[in-house]
Amino acid sequence: MFKGIFTAIVTPFNNGKIDEKAYRDLIEWQIQEGIHGLVPCGTTGESVTLSDVEWEHVIEITLEQVSNRIPIIAGAGSNCTEKAVKLTKKAYKLGVAATLQVTPYYNKPTQEGLYEHFKAIAKAADLPVVLYNVPGRTSVNILPETTARLSRIENIVGIKEASGDLEQIKKTKKMVSEDFAILSGEDAQNLAIYELGGVGAISVTSNILPAKVSDVWNIFESGDKDGAKFIQEELQPVNKALFIETSPIPVKTSLAMMGRIKEEFRLPLTRMGPENKKKLIETLKGYRLV
Question: Pick the catalytic residue: 160, 173, 212, 277?
Answer without folding.
Answer: 160
